[in-house]
Amino acid sequence: MLFRIEGAVAHIVLNRPRAMNALTYPMITSITDALTRWTLDDSVEIVLLTGAGDRGLCAGGDIVSLYRDLTGGGEGAATFWADEYRLDALIACCTKPFVAIMDGVVLGGGVGISAHASVRIVTERTKIGMPEVGIGFVPDVGGTWVLSRAPGELGTHLALTGGTATGADAIAIGLADHLVESARIGEFVEALASLSVTEAIERFATEPPASDLLAARGWIDGCYASDDAAEIVASLAASGEADARAAASVILVRSPTAVSITLASLRRARAFTSLEQALDQEFRVSLRLAAGTEVTEGIRAQVIDKDRQPKWSPATLDRVGAVDGYFADLGDRELGLSTTTRPSAMDGEKQ
Fold first, then answer.
1. Annotation says 294 is catalytic
2. How far is the CA of 147 from the CAs of 22, 67, 140, in angstroms?
3. Does the active-site annotation cover 61?
4. Backbone phi, then psi, for 45, in 5-degree steps?
5. What sign does the CA torsion over 153, 268, 236, 252 have?
6. pTM strictly above 0.90
7. Of the listed 51, 56, 61, 298, which one is catalytic?
8. How far apart, in Å, are the Cα atoms of 345 and each of 66, 91, 349?
9. Is 221 known to be catalytic?
10. Which is the catalytic residue, given 69, 84, 88, 140?
11. What structural domains and CATH numbers belong to the chain?
12. Each residue of 178-230: pLDDT tens digit?
């Protein structure tokens, strides 16, 4: 991590370029500490999040570390998720403009620290997604909150396939606000030293191209209308759209358990009135998935043994039973973010 204050701008730089800035627990806690200090520092007017290297802002959480922890008991994972989700909520309620530069790859945990910012900048290089179903997990870090609020079933499509959205797609579905050409990001950042966030956006932002994802809403809304994952796959497979049939094939190789829980999570999140409610729900689901074998098997197949042949249990969607138990109250282990009063957002500069 790199932290610095230049004039009125406080910089947070994720600095693990070789690992595409994957988040570790010390990174989470250090960002939390810095943001807490800067919120109380009257000399800080803007908080800016960027990632080192040219590959992307953040590839998500460090899943190799997660695998090691889960195979060794899992208590570290619970602490990581709790503090990560608290940070996501802290970013969302930051009373100063929090500007996230979502250039290049932005996945999983990277979405959590950027998509809840007050000012979200994407570029023509942006690839943003929540690929968790591919490792037997579910969209978390508030992912169910933002995806459940995308137009129609576009968020459901991204969540169940683990697919990615372009910068233009991200703006169209509410994951981002403005597009700045990647070649001009440096100029945009420099301009924040002398311009307000609004002025810098007016100077550097460009009209995004048409969203291919939004253009596909017709078949996506129709195929993903069901609350049953097996029915969704059947609808996709029977579609006259080649992209729909391809989506069915993708979902069928994901964890059936994770796909089913993800769909239920999104449907429940639609009724929520705050990000914090979604984070509390995601914490319940995360802990219960961690107690099983899907996550460790998914990570093993993808990044440990790299055989790309996960042995999901159960192996098919029609064998997944009721998933209500994953959402049950945790009692003393509840995260409890939704019972905490969120600070008032700053007037004026906050977008």
1. no
2. 22, 26, 10
3. yes
4. -110, -25
5. positive
6. yes
7. 61
8. 34, 11, 10
9. no
10. 140
11. 2-332 (3.90.226.10)
12. 999 999 999 999 999 999 999 999 999 999 999 999 999 999 999 999 999 99
